[in-house]
Amino acid sequence: MGVARLRELLPDYAKDIRLNLGSVTSQSNLSPQQLWGTVLASAIASRGRTALAELEAEAQAFLTPEAATAARTAAALMAMNNIYYRTMHLLEDKEYSRLRAGLRMNAIANPGVDKVDFELWSLAVSAVNGCGMCLTAHEQELRKRDVSREVIQDAIRVASVVHAAAVTIEAHEQVAAAT
Question: Which residues constitute the catalytic centre (predicted)?
Fold first, then answer.
């Protein structure tokens, strides 16, 4: 179940992803809660049904109910914020960036877990969603809180590998179902 099952489901052409999935979930500078919250939030952001089902089940062993809820909250809020702020950044008319966003995001101020953990999860989801403005904001917030670059990098590594596994497995399953 979980990481082991996903590693079995990855096709041979994704051997590097299989190996990376094992290493990022077993060798990390992140605490267990940080790691598995990052895994869960990244799996949600990656939108792969099989990966989410497997990883959420395994994450429950490492996360309190409050931490699991906070990881889901980070994924939900970043799904909104990453689209909004990435668009503000990409629009040529910079006047849009001066307008009030008007989007409710109170959970960021009180996520129910340590703020560093929530920021790491938000950073990971922002990496999956490709929002440069959000990545910069969360990285700066983490650095202000004396989080090392190695810890920040680990969260990004986890997000990238979870995303790659989710996308690869989803595509592999779709092709298999079509044949």
Answer: 131, 134
